[in-house]
C-alpha cells in the first residue's frame, strides 16, 4: 500500500525502490496505490529516479454489478449447496439485492459485502436457536449492515457539530485529491473553507479550525501529530473512509 509509506523526506520509499537497482538484485516490487498517478503526484525526483522499470496496471473501481458478480461467484464456489438453502434471495434475485447497492454506494469493496453476508448468516443462526428454523432474509442482512456501520466512532460522527462534520468531509476531499491518507491541517482548511461556501456557512478562523481538529483528536476520530507546527500538523483518520462516508451521508 504505497500511499501508507509516504513520509516527508520519503526515505522509506527511496530505500524500498533502490533495492531492486542494486547489483545482482533479484528483487521485484509490486506497489499498490489508490490513485493511478501517485508517483507523479507525490514522489520527489530522487525517488522517481529509482523507478527504472516502472510498469503500471490500472484496476478500475468496482461498481454495483461488479460486486454482485464477484461476490456471488465466490459464495457459489465455496458453499453453493448451502447457499441454495440459506441465501435463496442472493441466488435467485441478485441484481435487486439492496445489500450490494448499499455497499457499492459506500466503497465498492466486495470484502465488506462478504462480511455482511457472513454476519447475516450468524444472525439467522442465532435466531434459529430461539425460534423455528428459517432462511437468511433481507431483515437479517439489514441488521448486519446496521451493526457493521454502527460503531461508537460512527455514532460520534453523527453527533458531532456541523463544522466538525465539515472538517471530516474536508479530510476526505484532500485524501481523494492527493491520493495519500495523511494531510496537514492547512491542506484540510482550504477544503473546509470551500465546503462552507458551498453549504452557505460562515468559515471558521484558523484558531477555530485548530480547536475543531483537537476535539476530533480527543474523540480519537483523528490521529493528530504531536507537534508545535500549528497549521503544518499532520492528521490521519482513526477509522476507515467508508465508515466516515456512511456516518456523514444523509438518510
Short structural description:
Helices cover 58% and strands 4% of the residues. The protein has 251 residues and is mainly alpha-helical.
Task: Explain what the structure shows.
This protein has 3 domains: 2-53, no CATH class; 67-149, no CATH class; 155-248, Arc Repressor Mutant, subunit A, CATH 1.10.10. The protein is mainly alpha-helical. It has helices at 11-18, 38-42, 45-48, 64-86, 88-92, 98-106, 110-130, 138-148, 152-158, 162-178, 185-199, 206-218, 241-248, and strands at residues 183-184, 222-224, 234-237. The protein has 13 helices and 3 strands. The model is unreliable at 91-97 (pLDDT under 50). 58% of the residues lie in helices and 4% in strands. 23% of the residues are buried. The two termini are 33 Å apart. It is flat, with a radius of gyration of 22 Å. Strands 1-3-2 form a 3-stranded antiparallel sheet. It holds the Pfam family WHD_Cdc6. This is Origin recognition complex subunit 1. ORC is composed of six subunits. It is found in: Nucleus. GO terms for molecular function: ATP binding; DNA replication origin binding; metal ion binding.
Q: In CATH, what is the class of the largest domain?
A: Mainly Alpha
CATH fold-level name of the largest domain: Arc Repressor Mutant, subunit A
DSSP strand tally: 3
Strand line-up in the sheet with most strands: 1-3-2
The parts where pLDDT drops under 50 for at least 5 residues are: 91-97
Strand content: under 5%
Amino acid at each position: 500500500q504505497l500511499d501508507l509509506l509516504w513520509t516527508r523526506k520519503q526515505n522509506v520509499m527511496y530505500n524500498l525502490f533502490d533495492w531492486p537497482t542494486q547489483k545482482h538484485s533479484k528483487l521485484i516490487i509490486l506497489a499498490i496505490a489508490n490513485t493511478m498517478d501517485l508517483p507523479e503526484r507525490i514522489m520527489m525526483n530522487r525517488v522517481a529516479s529509482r523507478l527504472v522499470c516502472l510498469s503500471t496496471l490500472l484496476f478500475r473501481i468496482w461498481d454495483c454489478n461488479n460486486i454482485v458478480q464477484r461476490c456471488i461467484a465466490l459464495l457459489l464456489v465455496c458453499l453453493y449447496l448451502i447457499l441454495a438453502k440459506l441465501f435463496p434471495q442472493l441466488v435467485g434475485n441478485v441484481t435487486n439485492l439492496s445489500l450490494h447497492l448499499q455497499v457499492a454506494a459506500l466503497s465498492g469493496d466486495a470484502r465488506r459485502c462478504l462480511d455482511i453476508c457472513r454476519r447475516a448468516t450468524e444472525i439467522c443462526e442465532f435466531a434459529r436457536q430461539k425460534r423455528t428454523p428459517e432462511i437468511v432474509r433481507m431483515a437479517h442482512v439489514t441488521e448486519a449492515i446496521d451493526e457493521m456501520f454502527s460503531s461508537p466512532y460512527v455514532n460520534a460522527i453523527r453527533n458531532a457539530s456541523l463544522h466538525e462534520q465539515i472538517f471530516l468531509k474536508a479530510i476526505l476531499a484532500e485524501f481523494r485529491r492527493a491520493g495519500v491518507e495523511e494531510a496537514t491541517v492547512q491542506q484540510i482548511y482550504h477544503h473546509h473553507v470551500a465546503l462552507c461556501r458551498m453549504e452557505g456557512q460562515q468559515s471558521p478562523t484558523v484558531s477555530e479550525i485548530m480547536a475543531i481538529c483537537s476535539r476530533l483528536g480527543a474523540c480519537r476520530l483523528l490521529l493528530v501529530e504531536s507537534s508545535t507546527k500549528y497549521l503544518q500538523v499532520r492528521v490521519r483518520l482513526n477509522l476507515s473512509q467508508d465508515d466516515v462516508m456512511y456516518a456523514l451521508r444523509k438518510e
